[in-house]
Amino acid sequence: MVASLQHRMSSNFVFMANYTYSHCIDISDNAADVSTLTIQNPANIKGDKGSCGFDFRHVFNVTAVASTHFSKTGLVGQAINHWEISPLMHATDGAPFTVLTGYDRSLTALGTDRPNLTGANVYTHNKITKANPQYINAYTFGLNPTGTFGNSGQNAFRGPKYLQVDAAVNRSFALYKAFAANLRLEAFNVLNHPNFAIPNSGSGYHGSISASPIADPVMSSGTTFGQITSTANGSGARIFQGAVKITF
Fold first, then answer.
1. CA-based angle 149:151:117, to the nearest 5?
2. Are the C-beta atoms of 106 and 149 separated by less than 8 Å?
3. How many Å apart are CA 163 and CA 94, to the nearest integer?
4. Residue 66 within any structural domain of the chain
5. Which of 5, 109, 112, 169 fits a 20 to 30 Å CA distance from 189?
6. Bridge partners of 188?
């Protein structure tokens, strides 16, 4: 579903917003290699039916261009008129991810075992900080018994939401006859808002789940399972840049 709202060009304002709701479902994301096996149980591929790895359920974009046209003249008018301000906001819900155990408990030698989901409180609901990077509750998961497969689903969990606000300010100045100067200032991630990546949850973190929480609620020493340790790709600190262009 796609919904959009648009205010077309008037004397000094253009506005456009759109919202997309979608749901992509598959059994296994295309890994660009037909020999790559990502499903947990080859004898039950329907058990891996879930959200696609690129399934962003909600996507929201807003952009606008506003220009200044005040009645002032003279130096004051030159200073405050003919500026263009154009903000852009992009927001999505969190990216889906799968929790893997990092152990071959199923004895299939595939390395795609998922744990058992033993509780409902998956997310810690704490604000992610450097001192407290825990995003999902490790004790909600337990190792699947030897010779079995875990009940945790493919891409069953969501990472943090994404919000990016950019903005630009633009102004043209008439210099002499055909000569003109264009000043443009841009800011990326105006709010300096951190967008975090998904937590460490895959088989690259061996020993992340040490034992079933029912039997032994002690996680392995030094694990980063369930923690967010990086920002999302393309998300950085606030950046300002400027440019001047001379036309003739």
1. 125
2. yes
3. 10
4. no
5. 5
6. 239
Which residue range is the domain that position 121 belongs to? 23-56+93-247
Q: How many domains does the chain have?
A: 1
Per-run averaged pLDDT (10 residues), the chain, 248 residues: 88 91 89 65 90 93 90 80 92 92 86 86 82 85 89 92 95 87 94 91 48 40 77 85 94
Residue holding tokens 């903000």? 87
Of the candidates 37, 67, 40, 82, which has an alpha carbon nearest to the alpha carbon of residue 173? 82
Structure tokens at 242: 């400027």
- d(CA 196, CA 227) in angstroms, rounded, equals 11
Tally of CB atoms within 10 A around 108: 16
80 touches 183 (CB < 8 A): no
**pTM metric for this prediction:** 0.80
Contact of 167 with 86, CB cutoff 8 Å: yes
- Tokens representing 147? 């010779």
The closest alpha carbon to 28, from 44, 13, 14, 16, belongs to: 44
Q: Supply 152's token pair.
A: 């945790």
The predicted pLDDT at position 202 comes to 67
Here the tokens at position 127 are 């604000």
* 14 falls within a domain: no
Q: Is residue 6 situated within a structural domain?
A: no
Residue 17 lies in a domain: no
